[in-house]
Design brief:
Blueprint lengths: L18 H22 L8 H28 L3 H22 L2 H9 L7 H16 L6 H31 L2 E3 L9 H13 L5 E3 L3 H10 L3 H12 L14 H17 L5 H6 L7 H34 L9 H13 L3 H5 L4 H16 L2 E5 L9 E7 L2 E11 L9 E6 L2 E2 L6 E2 L2 E8 L12 H18 L21 H7 L5 H4 L14 H9 L5 H20 L8 H11 L15 H5 L8 H19 L8 H12 L7 H9 L6 H6 L4
Parallel strand pairs: 5-9
Antiparallel strand pairs: 1-2, 3-4, 4-5, 6-9, 7-8
Helix pairs in contact: 1-2, 1-3, 2-3, 3-6, 4-5, 6-10, 12-13, 12-20, 16-17, 17-23, 20-21, 24-25
């Protein structure tokens, strides 16, 4: 029987991939890639872009796509067998990419390519490649080079273990609550928890640490003891205080940090923060820290007022004089209900998943002059849908949408590429891009469609923004098409940009339909949501800055041999206006920086928010009298930013759209902190 990982000519056969396919396929593809590397590095092989691409890039892309399939399935359909197969292949794959990125013969070939013989896209890709060779250890010799390779392999292994521990610690927890305990929790969450308990032959309501369960409990459960129980379990996941303790990530984190520090020293940098910033927009760790502290200073008065308001409300309405960590989310929700006369629960009834998706597609089709249609492809779960994007009848890109939370699926939301747009050097054909869009929304219960919170809607738009960046590119060089080659601190611009449409009545009204009556969201309720948009935006800003500053200082000044918790406490003391309890171990599931590529880069969310708010201001300036965004501005944005991908520095794309450098003004105005 043929191996589906070796037979990918178009879309992967996700439904046919089995754990036993992984080792033979990856082994074969690694051998082919090694052979290609040997071929292009022979002295007689021409130092020409297309000649190298035809042999090496074709082989490495095949490996990358197949390994991407395995990694994707490992993230969304984890089983003990697949995990074992993935972990067995991981060191071999890591070893290959490390050797490729540090091969001095290949580095010499690339340096010998004549930039004048290349087009603008290829020149940018060549420039990136030479930079990446240096960061990949191509200039290291002897024992230093060997050690560099060992660091890459061990780091990959530890990051994977970190991710597994976070998933397993989340999946391992369940509490079966009684009728009285779930008082106040939204009906759809309670119904799903009841069904989950019944499926296991148990009484009560199965509460887990998956976000679609955890968050509503913290927001709405009247039972304070229940909130404390669930909060403690959530913030101690994958730590030495977690239950079960076998998923403790402490040792993994310390070793990851030590290896990053050692890697930086090998490459001639003082710390890993400096290494991380080489391919980014920001110039130095100092600049990032100053940016974060400046923003923290602007947000702090607003955050302090947020907390004072909550304290006053808790004392007045709940007779709660000393709120604890598990009370704040609940207090905030009650205060919001009193102040703006609506609740998240009321809003959620209008956001049925099918209607939201239709509304999202409508704005994208209008603004970016494309058509989105249902398509068919093999999928890994019955809940996954597949779509195609066309312009003028021509296929532009395709995407998989996997919306629901389930066991064996990593938490959070993300966009990932299946393949990039590429004018293939082997066939001369144009390959169109394909993306994964993954979320973790609650499933529908009691025969009703899934209901999304407004935050879920924002998450969906965010990930779709990443998808558009990847799929609407017009760049033909795969190394700089779509999201490839875009500076990491600019990559969030298109995603955060899309979030703004979730606050536009002209857009939002088309994507609502009450789950029971079918009625659209009333304008009055939307106006209340809008009034509450910046409710606690000061607190939310400081929370992101706390993460970003901790991440940057962790990689710039922290000694990996010592405990990182005092640094976290120091950052919290500097930034946070509500101090979390000493037992809080949120860093132990901070997958972005320990398993997700954001090491010394988490600040990117705030950095790119400045860009995205400023970019969106162009749409506010050109909207029509009904508030509908201008198609002309949409076209300009598409051409300057989305279509350009990574083919030029992000600041050039921004300036091509806005005609100037970005400013902080729009961000502060959007967040009510101007």
């Amino acid at each position: 029987m043929s191996n589906p990982l070796l037979a990918i000519t178009d879309l992967p056969a996700f439904d046919q991939v089995r754990p036993e396919h992984v080792a033979p396929a990856i082994g074969q593809l690694l051998a082919d890639a090694d052979k290609a590397l040997a071929t292009v590095t022979t002295p007689g092989f021409p130092a020409e872009w297309d000649a190298i691409a035809k042999v090496l890039d074709v082989a490495t892309e095949k490996l990358g796509i197949a390994w991407g399939v395995v990694g994707h399935l490992n993230a969304v359909a984890d089983t003990p067998e697949l995990r074992a197969a993935y972990n067995e292949a991981l060191p071999k794959v890591t070893d290959f990419w490390t050797r490729l990125g540090s091969d001095e013969r290949l580095y010499a070939k690339y340096k010998a390519i004549d930039p004048q013989a290349l087009n603008a896209e290829q020149r940018q890709a060549l420039k990136n490649a030479i930079r990446n060779f240096v960061l990949g250890g191509a200039e290291l010799q002897g024992p230093a080079k060997e050690r560099f390779a060992q660091i890459q392999e061990r780091s990959a292994e530890l990051s994977q273990k970190f991710s597994e521990n976070a998933l397993d610690a989340t999946d391992a927890y369940a509490y079966y609550a009684s009728d009285g305990e779930v008082a106040g929790v939204p009906e759809d969450v309670v119904a799903a928890a009841r069904e989950a308990a019944q499926a296991e032959g148990k009484d009560g309501y199965k509460l887990t640490l998956k976000f679609p369960v955890y968050m509503p409990v913290m927001q709405f459960a009247h039972d304070r003891a229940l909130r404390e129980r669930i909060y403690r379990a959530y913030v101690t996941r994958a730590s030495e205080l977690g239950d079960p303790v076998q998923f403790d990530n402490t040792a993994n984190m310390r070793e990851i940090l030590a290896l990053r520090q050692e890697e930086a020293k090998l490459l001639g940098y003082r710390n890993f923060a400096e290494v991380s910033l080489v391919p980014k927009m920001a110039d130095s760790p100092k600049q990032v820290v100053e940016f974060l502290r400046d923003l923290a200073g602007r947000a702090r008065p607003y955050a302090e007022k947020d907390v004072a308001d909550m304290r006053e409300f808790a004392a007045r309405k709940m007779d709660l004089r000393e709120p604890q960590a598990w009370d704040w989310t609940y207090i905030a929700e009650r205060l919001k209900e009193e102040r703006y006369a609506f609740s998240e629960q009321e809003v959620k009834q209008y956001f049925t998943a099918p209607k939201v998706l239709a509304g999202l597609f409508q704005i994208v089709q209008t603004l970016f002059e494309v058509t989105i249609r249902k398509d068919s492809a093999p999928v890994w779960n019955p809940g996954v849908e597949f779509y195609r994007i066309e312009r003028g009848g021509e296929l532009v890109g395709q995407f998989y949408l996997d919306p629901s939370a389930r066991s064996g699926k990593r938490g959070g939301a993300w966009m990932d590429d299946v393949r990039a747009r590429w004018l293939r050097p082997d066939t001369g054909r144009l390959q169109t891009p394909v993306a994964h869009l993954v979320c973790n929304f609650a499933e529908g219960a009691a025969g009703k469609p899934p209901l999304l919170t407004h935050d879920d809607v924002i998450t969906l738009f965010h990930e779709f923004g990443h998808g558009l960046h990847h799929m609407l590119t017009r760049v033909n060089e795969h190394e700089v098409s779509g999201i490839s080659g875009v500076e990491w601190d600019a990559v969030e611009l298109p995603s955060q940009f899309m979030e703004n449409f979730c606050w536009e009545w002209a857009v939002l009204r088309h994507m609502t339909s009450h789950v029971d009556t079918g009625a659209p969201l009333p304008r009055e309720l939307f106006d209340k949501m809008l009034a509450a948009r910046n409710f606690q935006s000061g607190l939310a800003t400081l929370r992101q800055i706390e993460f970003g500053l901790f991440d940057m200082l962790l990689h710039e000044e922290h000694d990996p041999r010592s405990d990182f918790m005092p640094l976290l406490a120091r950052v919290r003391a500097e930034v946070a206006v509500i101090q979390p309890p000493a037992f809080s171990r949120t860093a132990h599931t901070f997958s972005h920086i320990f398993a997700g590529g954001y090491a010394a880069g988490y600040y990117s969310y705030k950095w790119a928010e400045v860009l995205s708010a400023d970019a969106y201001a162009a749409f506010e300036e050109t909207a029509d009298e009904n508030g509908l965004p201008s198609v002309e501005t949409g076209r300009k944005y598409r051409q300057a930013i989305l279509e350009a991908g990574g083919s030029r520095p992000a600041i050039e794309s921004f300036k091509a759209f806005r005609g100037r450098e970005p400013t902080l003004d729009a961000l502060l105005r959007h967040q009510g902190m101007a």
